[in-house]
Amino acid sequence: MIELIDVKKRFGLKKVLQGVSFTAPRGAITCLTGLNGAGKTTILKAIMGLTPIQSGTIRIDGSARNQAMYERMVYVSDQLTMPGRMKIADCFSFMKEYYRNWNSERANELLARFQLNPADKVNSLSKGTAAKLNLLMGLAMDADYMLLDEPFSGVDLFSREEIAAVFSSEMVEGRGIILTTHEIREVEHLLDYVVMLDHGRITKQFASDDMRMEEGKSVVDVMREVYKR
Amino acid sequence: MTYWKLLNFELRRLALPLGILAVITTALQVYNAYSQANKSIDYAHRIMKKEHLSTMEQYANEHGYFSYSKSFDELNWLILSIFICAAFIGFYFVFIWYRDSVGRHPFMTRLLMLPASRRNLYWAKLTAPLLVMIALLALQQLLLPVGDSIYRSIVPSEVREDVPLQMLILINPALNILLSPSIVDLLLYYGTGITAVIVLYTGILLERSYRWYGILVGLVYAAVAIFVVMIPLIILQSDYRYTMMDSQLTVFYFILLAAVSGISVWYSQYLLAKKFTI
Questions:
Q1: What is the ipTM of this complex?
Q2: Is the pLDDT of residue B119 over 90?
Q3: Which residue ranges run through the membrane (chain B) (predicted)?
């Protein structure tokens, strides 16, 4: 379980996170939603230790984060995090060299599924192809948790469907997933928990099944209520 | 293990620039020897014609000998090649951090998430350009006899004065620093240079951690580091000059270099582990 307790973060004088607390269980998909600048990406980066927090606690399965946990947690950024001149095949070699939990078999399976060419260079990929490669590199790691930042951003309809299909496949089974997205409709039926953010504060958090059963509202309905106020 | 992998990775990225620099350095130094030799011969022929001298021996008796060393006591192609290499290495010490942090593909995100201590990353980024610098210095040293051979093959022995290669290094002010024959001087120059790079890295990491505020703090940090390292030089210029012997001042200088380097390395690694922001 990933736990955030009263996490605060500032960029200069701007308060980006103002006491954020939530838990994301393993084996469930937790979605962080909010308008631009709500602090979604900052939360993911803080969990991954890519940006320091001013105060609060972040725990992974009850322990403080450390470098060894990068084999248990994967961050899939909305940008490709490999050098532009590297070929896809070289990216795989790099990952295999540094991560013991890199699953080459799954990587090749996804390569075929997403129809990627291992000889293509990173900087030659379209936005949609780059998003698929990003997701591939996350899924090819045998990690307990996956943090995905806007996996559908700038991606065409067909690629979006391909990516969304992965979230209902056996590849994510048993993993804890934290996802930020604006394209909520694509994955709404898969979400277990939703955390709604506004200007660095949590405005609402709920289990999507409970919301549907008890109040008869979909995630999009709740988003409309919260953000159109 | 991760350190060696990262170092290998960084060196592979540096292979092309190193190759280009090696070609430029070699070309400039070979051209330097070739042009100096031809200049000497042309000059001798001009004078011989003017003074009606028939042999090179006669020229040498009247006007003295030519030496490859003469091309080392002035600003020339050799200095240009050293300057190009130094400028590239200097630029690369900064570029090595920003190349991976900015742009469409922030590779630094991946590097920070490697399942090993971030200290490995710091040491790899520090040692890779230093190793390239050492490789270029080795090439400079290798090119000295090559240049000398070219010079010998063009200028006849009758008008040529052969000078030991060691002398060539002593004559040229740049080579005298880069390839100093004195071990203490060598340690002094390289110790100062490496400390400067370590302090520069601390400044860069401060900027990467705190952005504009980090630049300000980095500048103050660098100023303090420079002041501390310069204390022995200040003593040397002051009325307290005679309170310490030269050797004591040198040891004092080394201690200060080690202290500034040690603190800067520790602080840089702390910043990279805890404060670095992508």
A1: 0.90
A2: yes
A3: 14-34, 77-99, 120-143, 186-206, 212-236, 248-267
